[in-house]
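Task: fold both queries, return tokens.
Query 1:
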Amino acid sequence: MDITFLVYTLGFWILLAVCAIVNGMFRQYVLVRRIGQEAARPVSSLTLSLMILAVAYVMLCVAPSDYDGTDLWIVGAAWLSVTVLFEFGFAHFVMKRTWSVLLEDYNILKGRTWSVVLVVTALAPYLMGSAVK
């Protein structure tokens, strides 16, 4: 893998972080008020997942270098890793959320759909790479 391509794709992860923040604000200030917290979570996960797929598609359409399937799996793994590290680091150390509260978002049996967003984050580069080529 060309290191320039990896750095380029990590730059797009910053755009994903902005999308996640905007999506979270939309969930809190619009969705929760209209449909309630429990219904807002899966809707928010769906909208963020669609944003992630769109960002991956655009990123690959304007990619400055060639890439292959292996490169796209590496990008997905990098995006997933940075997302989880940021989520736990920022939420725990800056927002002062406890580890148990953070782990609740991973409980799909309680209707928490954050895990779906993480799966989409990992798969998006490969899926959209197939669509672009």
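Query 1 returned. Query 2:
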Amino acid sequence: MAGYWERFRGGPTRPVAERVHVTINAKGVITFNRNVRKMLGNAEAAFLSFNKADCVIGISPAHVEHDDAFPVVDRGNYWLINAAPFCRCFGIKVAKTEKFTNPSLDPDGTLRLDLTTTVSAAVRPRKKGFNG
């Protein structure tokens, strides 16, 4: 069969109560939902780390008073970390908002965000019909 199949990597839509939702945008802002906040122990700040070999961002809970800690900002329905300095330092660039498809917690309590397995979460205007 001739042709090329492109697999959808976003997965099915899960109930809101079960979702683990983390995104990063072009400005270096990492946003996440309540479930991710719980995974991080409801910390008010976080340490950011980067594994260059695997292209994985690590987020671990921290005390807000620590000089290297990034504040976790409460926006009501979601939380964010302004990671722009971190992204600049490690050359992390995304053109548009990207959703991490498989965020996971490692045994040390670090949230692992794999930059090689993201999908676009950018909002696009609706089109009439399919234009491919």
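Both queries returned. Flag for query 2: The mean pLDDT is 90.
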